[in-house]
Design brief:
The protein has about 130 residues and is mainly α. It is built from six helices and no strands.
């Protein structure tokens, strides 16, 4: 293991995303708030994916290539997440964030984010069982 696994980045990212959704509910007309929530989704998704890959490698001894290719399918098999297909949907949404200059795509991405937050929180709770 290179450095100790920590869940702090995921805890902070998840909390920031939740706060962003609260702020958007208070100021729904502000596109800057919406765009900030999308950026927080990107960060939370990236941290989630990186952390799952590390857990698959370092705790479950999976080869890195397999861990990266089938990250969420393998994570589901091991009980780290509840729904691989749901997470693949989150990955697909994350991959679309490079096109947020398109207001229609940004609106679709934003609409997806509330379904991601419970999954991110669930991942965090499940990882706590494996990471000291």
């Amino acid at each position: 293991m290179s450095e100790q696994l920590s869940l702090e980045a995921l805890e902070l990212a998840t909390a920031a995303l939740a706060q962003g959704l609260v702020e958007h509910s208070q100021y729904p007309q502000l596109l800057t708030v919406r765009d900030g929530v999308i950026q927080r989704f990107e960060i939370t998704m990236d941290v989630s994916r990186q952390l799952v890959i590390r857990v698959l490698r370092e705790i479950f001894g999976m080869e890195e290539a397999v861990a990266r290719k089938d990250t969420f399918r393998e994570a589901a098999k091991l009980g780290l997440i509840a729904d691989a297909e749901g997470w693949i949907g989150h990955v697909n949404a994350r991959n679309r964030t490079s096109h947020t200059y398109d207001s229609e795509i940004a609106a679709q991405l934003f609409a997806h984010i509330p379904s991601f937050l419970p999954d991110a929180r669930d991942l965090l709770q499940r990882l706590k069982k494996h990471v000291a």
